[in-house]
Amino acid sequence: MSIGTRAAQAPDRAAVIDSGSGEIVTYRQLDERSNRLAQFFYAAGLRRGDTVALFMENTPRFFEVVWAARRSGLYLTAVNRYLTVEEAAYIIADCDAQVLISSFARADVAAALPGRLPRCRHFLMAGGSIDGWHSYEDAVAEFPAQPLDEQWLGELMLYSSGTTGRPKGVRKPLQPVKFDADGALSDLLRGLGFGETTVYLSPAPMYHAAPLVFCISAQCAGGTVLMMPRFDPEDVLALIERYRVTHSQFVPTMFVRMLKLPQEVRRRYDLSSHRLTIHAAAPCPVEVKRSMIDWWGPIIHEYYGGTEGNGLTWIDSTAWLAHPGSVGRAVIGVVHVCDEDGAELPAGEAGLVYFERETIPFAYYKDPERTRASQHPLHPTWSTLGDLGYLDGEGYLYLTDRKAFMIISGGVNIYPREVEDTLVAHEAVRDVAVFGLPDPEMGEQVKAVVELMDGFAPSELLAAELTGFARQRLAHFKVPKSLDFAEALPRLPTGKLYKHALRAEYLLKISSETQSEAARVTPTALA
After folding, report:
1. CA-based torsion, 245, 247, 250, 254: positive or negative
2. Which is it for strands 224-227 and 14-18: parallel, antiparallel or unpaired?
3. Measured on CA atoms in the order 62, 63, 69, 73, is the torsion positive or negative?
4. Could you tell me if 129 and 135 are in contact, meaning their C-beta atoms sit under 8 angstroms apart?
5. Which residues does residue 300 pair with via DSSP β-bridges, in sequence order?
6. 24-26 and 199-202 as β-strands: parallel, antiparallel, unpaired?
7. Rounded distance between C-alpha atoms, residue 465 and residue 468, angstroms
8. pLDDT tens digits, 48-69
9. Are 284 and 328 in contact (CB under 8 A)?
10. Are 350 and 421 spatial neighbours (Cβ–Cβ below 8 Å)?
């Protein structure tokens, strides 16, 4: 159902609660505010198929913009709130946004955007205003809180996280249906108990596909979204107890940080209302997930899919305990695992993971080459997200790593994820990144960069301890040849590690050292 229907049925029920400020927005308020903004969009000349961009932190205003775009037949591009001016401007320009909505909290970056976006016609800022921007509140107040005469269903047009290069805009065809036919709540979510009594905890940034889609779905079901401004491990437990949370979603790094809370903190809170939690976005180490099931019970579900929506696997706790490490069996599409030439591989052999559909449901915006690159060389309706994995004899999928991250050392394939999963189990490790660097003898060598837990300090002794910890659990060729420490790794709040940038820093450092060495050697050679 649409929020208009929910507003008529239960106008005073909370549609969203901001756990940081305590602000509550009811269904009536969300319906009225999104109607006013939809009226603004129409008066500004936007029509079905046009694009609105949103650059904002987690705040209830976020939902007003989302629902206004959805009831106007528009594409909505939510932009990562942590991006720099250059990065944000690239996405907003690339998606052809005609309206950009931001907040005063992002003013440091937003101030420079109008000058870089000549094709964007309207800039609205919530919570304050700066030069080049108009007040969001003043702009929408001029319009009636009535639905548009014709409400087509809009669509999200989100960008990949860009962990291996420039972000890609994922554009899906608009559905030829009216807004009241909103299909955000799938049969799968209904089966998971989403309904009017749902209290859905969302600790992740709203610009990311998974939290945004699940929050929309919870509101379509008439439930309440409890949105955290940012993730904090103990706050999660306190909020579950205080608001009697029923459903939630996390990424594996959040699991790791909750598990590393002291036992007395983990036992302090009543989690009995918590019926189901979902995780995805990045592979979860087997021991981390097993520990979470031991703690929270068999309420943990996992899926594998992407913003592209080209397929989906799903697995509950019971099936996972029987197939540890799996991300499940396909519930949308058919999974195939293929070699570099596109030949399908037998069970147990790792290769590139494809989803087969009747048609590919997406295209990368303005990038036909990347769209073609995602397609199978022989089967044009099979597409890949670039992940490597294998199927077992029962059709359960296991992911090994991203194709772009695989290390080839001495002709042997090494999956960084396996090394990362091993090192993160050490009590001193908060987070870890493993990647390949050039090696004159082996082609590539295994490099590890570790972020430490509080109470641990970088040292050669600790580096040796961690290397020894890995050596006890991994084949020798997988053990990091060198290990560094970092204050914080560039992991996105969505759970994905920005490994491309980290590796680029090391490659630049190697290049600089090589050039310095050449400069020192050259005079001697000439003499």
Report:
1. positive
2. parallel
3. positive
4. yes
5. 277
6. unpaired
7. 5
8. 999 999 999 999 999 999 999 9
9. no
10. no
Looking only at the bridges linking them, the beta strands covering 199-202 and 170-171 are unpaired
**Is the alpha carbon torsion for 265, 267, 272, 276 positive or negative?**
positive
Cα distances from 231 to residues 19, 194, 237, 330, in angstroms, run 11, 22, 11, 30
pLDDT at 477: 87
The amino acid that residue 445 corresponds to is Q
Contact present, 298 and 318 (Cβ < 8 Å): yes
Q: Is 452:428 a contact under the CB 8 Å cutoff?
A: yes
Average pLDDT, the chain: 91
Classify residue 404 as exposed, middle or buried by CB count within 10 Å of its CB (0-12, 13-18, 19+): middle
CB 13 within 8 A of CB 199: no
Confidence band for 524, pLDDT divided at 50, 70 and 90: very low
Nearest of 153, 224, 211 to residue 182 by alpha carbon: 153
Return contacts of 511-518, CB within 8 angstroms, 24+ apart.
none
Helices 416-423/460-471 angle, 10° precision: 120
Q: Per-residue DSSP letters for 154-181?
A: -EE--B---TTSS--BEE-PPPSSBGGG
Using a 10 angstrom Cβ sphere, with 0-12 exposed, 13-18 middle and 19 or more buried, the burial of residue 270 is exposed
Q: Is 234 helix (H, G, I), strand (E, B) or coil?
A: helix
What single-letter amino acid sits at 147?
A: P
pLDDT band at 138 (very low <50, low <70, confident <90, very high): very high
Q: Are the C-beta atoms of 436 and 407 separated by less than 8 Å?
A: yes
The CA distances from residue 42 to 35, 36, 45, 68, 99, in Å, are 11, 10, 5, 10, 11
Tokens standing for 61? 């205003």
337: which strand partners? 353
Instruction: Give this prediction's pTM.
Output: 0.82
Q: Is-contact 220 182, C-beta < 8 A? A: yes
pLDDT, one tens digit per residue, over 337-386 is: 999 899 999 999 999 999 999 999 999 999 999 899 999 999 999 999 98
Q: Which residues pair with 279 in a beta bridge?
A: 250, 302
The shares of helix, strand and coil residues in the chain, as percent rounded to the nearest 5, are: 35, 25, 40
